Amino acid sequence: MTIIHNLGFPRIGAQRELKHALEAFWKGDTPESTLIQQAKALRQRHWLAQKAAGLDLIPVGDFAYYDHVLQTLLWLGALPSRFGIDPAQATLSDQFALARGTPSQPALEMTKWFDTNYHYLVPEFDRHTRFTPQTRWLHSDLTEARALGIAAKPVLVGPLTLLWLGKSKDDSDRLSLLPALVAAYTVLLAALKAEGVDWVQIDEPILTLDVPDAWLAAFAPTYAALAPQSPKLLLATYFGSVLPHRDLLCGLPVAGLHLDAVRAPEQAQAFADSLPEDRVLSVGILDGRNIWRADLDKCLLNLSPLAAQLGERLWLAPSCSLLHVPVDLAQETSLDSEVKSWLSFAVQKLNELKLLKRGLDEGIASIANELAASRHAAASRHTSLRVVNPAVRARLAQRQAGDDQRAAAYPERAAAQQAWLKLPLLPTTSIGSFPQTADIRAARAAHRAGTLDEAGYQAAMQAEITLAVRRQEALDMDVLVHGEAERNDMVEYFGEQLSGYVFTRHGWVQSYGSRCVKPPVLFGDVARPAPMTVAWSAFAQSLTPRPMKGMLTGPVTILQWSFVRDDQPRADTCRQIALAIRDEVLDLERAGVRVIQIDEPAFREGLPLRRADWAGYLAWAAECFRLSAAGVENATQIHTHMCYSEFNDILPAIAALDADVITIETSRSDMELLTAFGSFAYPNEIGPGVYDIHSPRIPTVEAITHLLEKAMKVIPVARLWVNPDCGLKTRNWVETEAALANMMTATKQLRATLATA
User: Fold this and answer.
1) Is 694 an annotated catalytic residue?
2) Which of 245, 258, 694, 706 is catalytic?
3) End-to-end CA distance of the chain
4) Predicted model pTM
């Protein structure tokens, strides 16, 4: 009998219940007890949904109030000493202090979870780090699940992955902490064993990366130490192939292995042939990263020989946690019916898993009707006339060499731009968005519902834009933004105006904490039927003599932050988007908007996990950015923005974007990220973020001055900009104006100092 299980379920809720509960608690509108009860109800609903889907084992411990890596640190008692939190007494408020910062301490750094758009909180380690495991958190979840009759499989981030994903704050060797960390894991695992837990899933996705030999060599002794004290361990890998480590993994004293057979289908049979006869092989057969309906015939074709070979040792699961997909397609009552038939969200993927189990255990005839529906959906998608646009394909084929190159090199462009911009030293700007107030959201909702007509909506948004412009002028900022009041999301907004996209109403996924995004569904060839931002930006520019930035999302980020079609190379899809953005850039320039920002926060996110695959991706990703930007005149200044990524190892590719100005997130790392740009001698202008917009903390003038002085040591002052880390849509106006005022004060004080030096 085939076992089916799940690696993790979306924690935010089908209606973003966790988001709303968290934000109400943070605002002080509800007490902690209410938040705890709301989270409990959500966990239980998710467990029962998985139980109803027929799962034999259900993950417990995958739910987190903010982030599962932070949650693991709480379980291990590995909290940075700078917060002064006693792990044994840690509360939910303490957890949020680590995640969001305090008046005296910045939050933990945040960066992307592998190549996803989920952000995890980066563990902080040093040679004095101590681990004091706290079993109460896991015990509580396990007791709660068992009361519902849940066949629980606790889930832990593995010790080597946790260490790898962290940072040493004193340059000590993180691996030297492994013995103490293993001892802490042993306490957690022994407690679970004492409670009668049969299986524990322990995630080690770093095995899909290029990790040093010393880290690989640590796996065998680590699991040799853990296994005797533990329930049966299912070591889970995902996001790529671990075939290079087959001998290592097959030799570990674990009871089972989970493999991603979506991204690396070839590895399933290879491991089946090598795995010891007492081990389970869990095959991640359904795509946990995307929303396309599975081809059940193809899945069964691949699984049948494995089932014949392994029998009851074959387990089935999604490729990774379903954290990265929306909860339930059934909620999408207004979605285009043809495209809806091609999709599968978390609940539907569990049903597909159940069908595959039945097909293997009871024969194909037992799921004949479901197979027919699967074939019909696949055929519909393959033959739909809405997927292919001949004009788009012809334009792509006809692009010329040099279409992705500016007319002049940066020094000549910079001179032409300064001739009309006339910016002071340390020019100031913001990244793009300003607070999305209740009034803005209400107007957007009324417009969507039809109770506010187009003229009324236009007037409401113009009033918000005017307000944003006047507030920036009052702050004396140099290059302004219109605030993006009219935009719901930096990708969805553009996707709504491009062909080849459809949109869900409830397709939310968690990005970090309470921040959710609703990725558009990119199913066909992409074109821009009409200008998307020109009227708003031109209106904003008409309000002020100061330069106004036109704000666009770049092609790589639109690609990465969509649910992308899987029937053609991603590079081709990205080039289609780039040509659409190029049309918008040129229309902005013609409308008199001569500073244009093309955001690419997902540029590094798209990087393949193995270094051998980097060059190809970086070449086409940089080409796509240049293709979108290169048609403008020399005097038009092109900006880009990147955030929450490590850039050190791809700086040549970032330089190859040839943006006139790049802005990056650096405040949480105390300008650490900027050092690499200085060592590399980044050739163009750069704006390191001088305060963290994801925290409610108001940065002091002194803190901003400290960061700017550090920046001035590695970047020539003539090429240095001043700006926040990221857009300000999640903040309120009180916080925003106070922070920007301090930023302007710090900047002007430094300008005065430079003038007298």
Assistant:
1) yes
2) 694
3) 79
4) 0.88
